[in-house]
User: Fold 5-amino-6-(5-phosphoribosylamino)uracil reductase from Hartmannibacter diazotrophicus.
Amino acid sequence: MSELASGTERSIATLPIAMREPHIADRNGRPLAVAIDPSGRIHYGHDNIGGDHAVAVLGHQVSDTYLAELREDGVSYIFAGPSGDDLPGAMAQLAYFFGVQKLLLEGGGTINGVFLRHRLINEFSTLISPALDGRAGAPSIIDYRGAIDESPGAGQALRLMGCEILEGGTVWLRHSVEDAAGHNDMPVT
Assistant:
């Protein structure tokens, strides 16, 4: 998300915040662009990302100066626990403050893995393009960075909802993520 923001870090004169409370800026009826940014590294420069109202999901450890910067830019923010990893709590706040019931997760494999681990994904939409790469170490759709003995997809399974061949030979697969009916050790397939 940081590549879409154009602001720079700056000093803000007033620092009225001591508690870590959500800040809900004026959305003006726009769709939301939600950035998972636990450490407060994105400097927006304005209140939107591609025209959508910017909402930052932060950890409690971000500085008061950073929060003042976000307020000055008109960016809304919520907190996902002390280290910014309480994604179920963040999703509950998005529902409460903004009425969000569904969101499109446009991260990479790492954020997909964290959301999957917390059972926050109910559907995968995958585009497979007819291209060759072959490089080792390329990110995957799910690239969970948790403990070696953790399986973020444990107890979950995929059910094919649709398959479509698009222009140029691209294949679009849609899968629902469902409980694996008591098979807690069943990998995502």
Notes: Confidence is low (pLDDT under 50) at residues 182-189.
